[in-house]
Amino acid sequence: MSIELYRDANHACLMFTDLVEEDEQAVQSNQFLIVDHGTGAVIDPGGNLAFNTLLLTMSKYFPPQKLSYIVASHADPDIIAALDRWLTSTPAKLVISTIWERFAPHFTKVGKTTGRVIAVPDAGGKLPLGMSELWLVPAHFMHAEGNFHFYDPISRILFTGDLGVSMMSGRQAQTPITRLAPHIPLMEGFHRRYMASGKILRLWVKMARRLDIEMLVPQHGAPIVGQTAINEFFDWIDTLSCGIDLFDERDYQLPTARISP
User: Fold this and answer.
1) Residue spans of alpha helices (H) in the chain
2) Looking at the DSSP assignment, which residues form a beta bridge with residue 70?
3) For residues 83 and 45, what is the distance between their CA atoms, to the nearest angstrom?
4) Has residue 168 got a pLDDT over 90?
5) Which of 31, 41, 22 has its CA nearest to residue 1?
């Protein structure tokens, strides 16, 4: 399923969701394509379960042979496990945190990444894309050590990776979130476990409020659309306790339970 998040005469942002069958027992994930003046970037393209369908669906909008970038928020399997196949099928370069630069080749055959990795420093940067640019915004420890969000100044979309996730099916992810409260039960458990600490969230919120954002689009679940829902999300995570905030010595005990094979 493809969803047009934004389009004008020279610029487009598309979300692909529900590409993996529910019975595959894999977490639902979204993939994204940004095109500006004929230059394309795929964001968090995913693993092998989604590769064939994504490549075929994307081809209806943009030729993979002209793809310039594979942009990865971090190096989890649901982000770039199909990297070898993307590097074979396209001329694109991988854009990823410098922390993951030497780990990404583990997803490919020997030598496949040589000369094809753009390592991004912790401070991020602005990646040329056609006649525009994609902002690589620091989002470290949400949840990966080296992690970035991607801001498109044309559409005013912030692609937030594992932040803003709501645990739902791909079909449910097609309906935007315009008020946050009904969706917090689908978000809270994930954010409390996968975000490293409340300190990190507060630092991120302070930075993100400076951006002109029309839409927050996570890698799992539905987009958060409009100023009301976006501000509600900022307010919610600004006070959320999560990650190491919730752990103490009770969580670090030698195991006693036997695991059934």
Assistant:
1) 48-58, 77-80, 83-89, 184-194, 198-208, 227-238
2) 42, 94
3) 8
4) no
5) 31
CATH number for the domain whose boundaries are 2-246: 3.60.15.10
Read off the pLDDT of residues 171-228 as tens digits, 9 standing for 90 and up: 777 899 999 999 999 999 999 999 999 999 999 999 999 999 999 999 999 999 999 9
Contact criterion met (CB below 8 Å) for 40 and 86: no
Q: How many CB atoms lie within 10 A of CB 8?
A: 9
pLDDT of residue 183: 95
**Structure-block tokens of residue 128:** 């040329």
Rounded to 10 deg, the angle between the 227-238 and 198-208 helix axes is 150
pLDDT, one tens digit per residue, over 24-58 is 567 788 999 999 999 999 999 999 989 999 999 99
| Amino acid letter for position 241 | S
| Residue 74: strand, helix, or coil | coil
Which of helix, strand or coil describes residue 88? helix
Cα–Cα distance measured from residue 260 to residue 258, given in angstroms and rounded to the nearest whole number: 6
Spatial distance between the Cα atoms of 151 and 143, rounded to a whole number of angstroms: 18
Helix (H) or strand (E) holding 3: strand 2-7
Strand arrangement, sheet containing 31-36: 2-7, 11-16, 31-36, 39-43, 67-71, 93-97, 117-120
Domain ranges of the chain: 2-246
Burial of 238 (0-12, 13-18, 19+ CB in 10 A): middle
Show the tokens assigned to 188: 């809270």
Q: Rounded CA gap, 71 and 92, in Å? A: 9
